[in-house]
């Protein structure tokens, strides 16, 4: 695919929302993050912190009960919904109060996760699927946007496209599968591709090899969740989150080695990086 537009710094500036002087936490909505599992709280910590930094009003984390303490020690601003996965198919479970939902960091792609994703697809809220929530499935027609965040290995696993073919035609395959599945695909990597189900597609110009490290995808999921809450236009939220995630990595390498970045440091850089776009 030739002449794919780039989501530039100028476009981020034009579409980054302002914080209204008379706003309150309810203005920016409550997000639900379903993440982490017994013995694996780290991914939930990374996604939670990034979400809190990215414009939402309130964050609820649904995780294993034993993961609450470590997550809360790193992200005291979050609130928690223990055992939600056990109740996900309960007809009395009300998820209408959430503005956006993300699921997958620190979770396994098992039947339990699959059942939860199936339920969430019917809720009608913007939904981010990452890590353990990325599986081969059909989506049908959904009421709200569904956003998949695969790296090349995950993309190959859920689509069957061989990695060697994907390497040379990543934009083509991302656009093709976004249209086929009716979802938005963020195909991560060098020149990350953001492909929308209606054929709209962008390349992201930010980011570098510092992002080639565990946990950076969890951070992106959190940023997507937070920005879906504070943007009026969900597409702008997706594009801005991907751009700013990479911009934080670019800021890191201006003074430090790309070898040394830790995923949580992207979130620590975000306040300064985002301010430079306002």
TrEMBL record:
<keyword id="KW-0521">NADP</keyword>
<dbReference type="Pfam" id="PF01256">
    <property type="entry name" value="Carb_kinase"/>
</dbReference>
<feature type="domain" description="YjeF C-terminal">
    <location>
        <begin position="8"/>
        <end position="277"/>
    </location>
</feature>
<feature type="binding site">
    <location>
        <position position="106"/>
    </location>
    <ligand>
        <name>(6S)-NADPHX</name>
    </ligand>
</feature>
<keyword id="KW-0067">ATP-binding</keyword>
<feature type="binding site">
    <location>
        <position position="218"/>
    </location>
    <ligand>
        <name>(6S)-NADPHX</name>
    </ligand>
</feature>
<feature type="binding site">
    <location>
        <begin position="188"/>
        <end position="192"/>
    </location>
    <ligand>
        <name>AMP</name>
    </ligand>
</feature>
<comment type="similarity">
    <text>Belongs to the NnrD/CARKD family.</text>
</comment>
<protein>
    <recommendedName>
        <fullName>ADP-dependent (S)-NAD(P)H-hydrate dehydratase</fullName>
        <ecNumber>4.2.1.136</ecNumber>
    </recommendedName>
</protein>
<feature type="binding site">
    <location>
        <position position="217"/>
    </location>
    <ligand>
        <name>AMP</name>
    </ligand>
</feature>
<feature type="binding site">
    <location>
        <position position="151"/>
    </location>
    <ligand>
        <name>(6S)-NADPHX</name>
    </ligand>
</feature>
<keyword id="KW-0520">NAD</keyword>
<keyword id="KW-0456">Lyase</keyword>
<feature type="binding site">
    <location>
        <position position="43"/>
    </location>
    <ligand>
        <name>(6S)-NADPHX</name>
    </ligand>
</feature>
<dbReference type="InterPro" id="IPR017953">
    <property type="entry name" value="Carbohydrate_kinase_pred_CS"/>
</dbReference>
<keyword id="KW-0547">Nucleotide-binding</keyword>
<comment type="subunit">
    <text>Homotetramer.</text>
</comment>
<comment type="function">
    <text>Catalyzes the dehydration of the S-form of NAD(P)HX at the expense of ADP, which is converted to AMP. Together with NAD(P)HX epimerase, which catalyzes the epimerization of the S- and R-forms, the enzyme allows the repair of both epimers of NAD(P)HX, a damaged form of NAD(P)H that is a result of enzymatic or heat-dependent hydration.</text>
</comment>
<dbReference type="InterPro" id="IPR000631">
    <property type="entry name" value="CARKD"/>
</dbReference>
<dbReference type="InterPro" id="IPR029056">
    <property type="entry name" value="Ribokinase-like"/>
</dbReference>
